[in-house]
C-alpha cells in the first residue's frame, strides 16, 4: 500500500500599511495568532479561515496534514525588522523539524511589508522554496488585496486567491488549494502559472466583488479561462496603502503543464482589467453631503469611515464622523472607538457614573480632534466575542480588550475598546447586550470588509470620503516606490505591449 502523503501547513499573514508611523511587532502577532504544531489544528480547523480549508481538503483527500507554523496580526504598520526575523526563523525551524514532507500548503496574505523586506511574502516564500528544493509542490493561497510580485509567483507551484471581497470564501479557497495538492501528489499533475501586471490600481472603494463593475470583470475572467488546461485563475485587486514597487492590481492563471496558455490567459484578463480602468474610479460623498441626504430618512444607515479603515491598518480612533453626528443630532447612532485611556477612566468611575471624557483622536492629527463629552457609563466588560459565520478575514475569536459602553447626548452610544479591532463582526455591536436594530445609524471604520456583517442590517450604505491614513482617494497618498506611470495616479498612463512575468 502506498504511504499516505504528508503535507506541511504554513501561514504568515498581515496587511501592512506603510503610511503609518507605528510598527507591527511580535506582540501584535501574539495578540492574534502565533501558533505551531497541533495548536494550529485545535484553534483553526473549525474556523472559516483558509488554514481550516487546508485541513478539511487534506482530510477529504486522505492526506496527512502536518501543521507547522501560523502567525497572523491585524492590519497595522510595517513589520519591525527584528520581529520579522523572529517570525521567519521560527517558521523555517518548524519546517526543518517536520521530517520528510511531500508538499507544502502556505497562506501568505500578499500585502505584507517588513522593514528589511518590502515584498515580505515573496521573501518568505522564497526562503521556504530554498529550504524545500525546486521540486516539492508549494501551493499557496492569497488575499485578493495582495500586491502580487514576480517573486511570489516564482517561489510557488501555484497561487490561488479568494474570489470574494468581503472575503467569504477563505475556507473554500483553502479547500481548493488542498484539492489541487492532492491531484499533484496522486495524479502527478504538473502545474504552470503566469501573472500579468497592468500598470493600474483598483480603488479600494470599487473592490466589492458582488457588484459592478468588479463583478463584470470576474465574469469576464471566468469566461476567458473556460478552456481545457486552465486549472485556476485569480484576480489580485491590490492594496494601495503599501508604498512598494509591486503595489497594484494583477491577474494570475494556473494551467496544466502549459506555460503559454497560462501566459495568454493572464494577459487577456489583465487587458480586460486595463480596459475597464476608468470604471473603477470611486464615487463617494463628503461627511456633510452624506448627512444632508439622510437628515429626514427613516432608513437604517451604515456610514463607512474610509479614512479610518481599521482593516487597512488605521488608528481606529478617528472622530470626524462622531463630531458631525453629534452636531446634527442624527441619533440613535452607534460608533466604536479605540481609546484605552477612556476605558480606564470609565472603569475607575464605574457603571452608572457620569463623567467628562475626551474621546478618540489620540493617535495623530489626521483623524480628527478628540470628542469632548459628558458620558454615562452603561456597561463594562472584557470585550471578547465570537463569530461563527463566514465573515471577512475568517476570524472567529475576537478580543478587543477591556471595553466600556458609554452613552452621551444627543443619543450617541459609543463602544470604547482597549485594542484595535476591525469591524468584521456584528457581534462587536452586541457586546454588552446592545441591539444593533435599536440604532438608526451605525458607523463602521472600513470600506468593503464590514459589509458582510453590517450590510444585511442596513437599508442604505454610504462610503464617506473622510480624511485619514487610509483616505480612499489613493492619489493623495505620498507613494515613492510605486511604478510610474500608473493609473489612476497618472490619468493618461499607457500600457505598452509587454510580456507577462512567466513561471514555468
Ligand atoms: Zn483582504
Quickly list its features.
504 residues, alpha/beta, eight-stranded mixed β-sheet, six-stranded mixed β-sheet, 14 helices, globular, disordered C terminus, binds zinc ion
Question: Could you give the topology of this structure?
Answer:
Blueprint: E1 6-13, H1 26-31, E2 33-36, H2 38-44, H3 50-60, E3 64-72, H4 81-96, E4 103-108, H5 120-132, E5 138-142, H6 150-155, E6 158-161, H7 170-187, E7 191-196, H8 214-224, E8 230-236, E9 250-256, H9 259-275, H10 287-293, E10 301-305, H11 320-328, E11 333-338, H12 340-349, E12 354-359, E13 371-381, E14 384-386, E15 397-399, E16 403-408, E17 412-417, H13 427-430, E18 441-444, H14 451-454, E19 460-464, E20 501-503
The chain binds zinc ion.
Amino acid at each position: 500500500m502506498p504511504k499516505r502523503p504528508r503535507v506541511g501547513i504554513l501561514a504568515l499573514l498581515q496587511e501592512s500599511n506603510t503610511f503609518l508611523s507605528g510598527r507591527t511587532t511580535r506582540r501584535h502577532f501574539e495578540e492574534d495568532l502565533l501558533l505551531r504544531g497541533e495548536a494550529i489544528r485545535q484553534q483553526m480547523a473549525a474556523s472559516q479561515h483558509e488554514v481550516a480549508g487546508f485541513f478539511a481538503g487534506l482530510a477529504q483527500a486522505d492526506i496527512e496534514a502536518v501543521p507547522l507554523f501560523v502567525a497572523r496580526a491585524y492590519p497595522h504598520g510595517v513589520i519591525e525588522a527584528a520581529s520579522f526575523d523572529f517570525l521567519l526563523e521560527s517558521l523555517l525551524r518548524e519546517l526543518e523539524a517536520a521530517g520528510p514532507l511531500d508538499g507544502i500548503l502556505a497562506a501568505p496574505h500578499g500585502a505584507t511589508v517588513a522593514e528589511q523586506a518590502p515584498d515580505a511574502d515573496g521573501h518568505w516564500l522564497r526562503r521556504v522554496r530554498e529550504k524545500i528544493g525546486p521540486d516539492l509542490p508549494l501551493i499557496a493561497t492569497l488575499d485578493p488585496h495582495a500586491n502580487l510580485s514576480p517573486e511570489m509567483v516564482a517561489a510557488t507551484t501555484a497561487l490561488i486567491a479568494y474570489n470574494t471581497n468581503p472575503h467569504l470564501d477563505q475556507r473554500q479557497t483553502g479547500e481548493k488549494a488542498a484539492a489541487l495538492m492532492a491531484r499533484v501528489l496522486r495524479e502527478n499533475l504538473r502545474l504552470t502559472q503566469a501573472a500579468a501586471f497592468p500598470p493600474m490600481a483598483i480603488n479600494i472603494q470599487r473592490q466589492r466583488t458582488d457588484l459592478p463593475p468588479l463583478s463584470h470583470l470576474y465574469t469576464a475572467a471566468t469566461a476567458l479561462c473556460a478552456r481545457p488546461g486552465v486549472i485556476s485563475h485569480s484576480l489580485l485587486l491590490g492594496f494601495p496603502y503599501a508604498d512598494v514597487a509591486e503595489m497594484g492590481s494583477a491577474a494570475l492563471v494556473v494551467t496544466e503543464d502549459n506555460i503559454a496558455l497560462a501566459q495568454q490567459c493572464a494577459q487577456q484578463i489583465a487587458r480586460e482589467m486595463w480596459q475597464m480602468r476608468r470604471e473603477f474610479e470611486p464615487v463617494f460623498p463628503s461627511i456633510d453631503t452624506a448627512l444632508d441626504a439622510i437628515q429626514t430618512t427613516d432608513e437604517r444607515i451604515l456610514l463607512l469611515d474610509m479614512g479610518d479603515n481599521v482593516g487597512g491598518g488605521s488608528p481606529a480612533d478617528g472622530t470626524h464622523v462622531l463630531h458631525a453626528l453629534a452636531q446634527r443630532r442624527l441619533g440613535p447612532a452607534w460608533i466604536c472607538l479605540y481609546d484605552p485611556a477612556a476605558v480606564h477612566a470609565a472603569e475607575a468611575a464605574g457603571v452608572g457614573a457620569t463623567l467628562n471624557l475626551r474621546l478618540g483622536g489620540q493617535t495623530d492629527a489626521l483623524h480628527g480632534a478628540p470628542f469632548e463629552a459628558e458620558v454615562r457609563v452603561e456597561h463594562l466588560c472584557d470585550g471578547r466575542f465570537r463569530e461563527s459565520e463566514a465573515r471577512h478575514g475568517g476570524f472567529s475569536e475576537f478580543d478587543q480588550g477591556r471595553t466600556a459602553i458609554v452613552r452621551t447626548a444627543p443619543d450617541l452610544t459609543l463602544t470604547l475598546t482597549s485594542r484595535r479591532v476591525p469591524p468584521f463582526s456584528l457581534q462587536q455591536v452586541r457586546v454588552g447586550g446592545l441591539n444593533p436594530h435599536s440604532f438608526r445609524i451605525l458607523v463602521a471604520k472600513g470600506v468593503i470588509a464590514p459589509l458582510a456583517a453590517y450590510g444585511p442590517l442596513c437599508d442604505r450604505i454610504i462610503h464617506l470620503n473622510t480624511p485619514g491614513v487610509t483616505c480612499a482617494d489613493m492619489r493623495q497618498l505620498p507613494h515613492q516606490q510605486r511604478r510610474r506611470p500608473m493609473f489612476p495616479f497618472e490619468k493618461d498612463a499607457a500600457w505598452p505591449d509587454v510580456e507577462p512575468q512567466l513561471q514555468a
